[in-house]
User: Fold this.
Amino acid sequence: DAGVTQSPTHLIKTRGQQVTLRCSPKSGHDTVSWYQQALGQGPQFIFQYYEEEERQRGNFPDRFSGHQFPNYSSELNVNALLLGDSALYLCASSLDWRLRGANVLTFGAGSRLTVL
Amino acid sequence: GESVGLHLPTLSVQEGDNSIINCAYSNSASDYFIWYKQESGKGPQFIIDIRSNMDKRQGQRVTVLLNKTVKHLSLQIAATQPGDSAVYFCAENIAIYNFNKFYFGSGTKLNVKP
Assistant:
């Protein structure tokens, strides 16, 4: 089982640019959540996707958007990058809570974004 | 968001000693808690979880204690090893939101001295 895979692992962008990050969930998982982790901080919830729809969103601006595909993989897009967007972006997959109630998030290794 | 905080940002222990990492949460509606370990350059890794209908759960060398009265969670690591050096996060899920959304604390760094 490959677990959660994310790409790219590292990338550097300049202010104003756009970025797309990709995630493949753990086999058998159907729900994907994205988190932003600033240096020295805990992960902060961005949004969650289930059945190709955004189900819940954290306190992030509309510059952050996402998508989930029929095979459950997901993308995170960030437009008009700011210096403060520099962070580790984590993808986590899980089972739909309606089946199991709250259950474990399995995280990928993350994509390290640096905005210059 | 809700507040999930840790009492000590850094904890240093001697190899072989027991470690205790503490976490406070603020929402009494939280129904499920997870401890994660994050090593440098890696994503958070599941250690142990506990639901609000329990007050203690044991794993291999780890024990989680939940005190709902004071909204406190702790992670105990027995016979701490150098490989336990990492940042530890507690995460809470709040049932009223009815989906798998977790709030994370800012983490405690555990340093294990040989």
Notes: The mean pLDDT of chain B is 89. Chain B is about 0% helix and 55% strand. Chain B touches chain A at residues 1, 4, 31-32, 34, 36, 41-46, 49, 89, 91, 93, 95, 97-107 (CB under 8 Å).
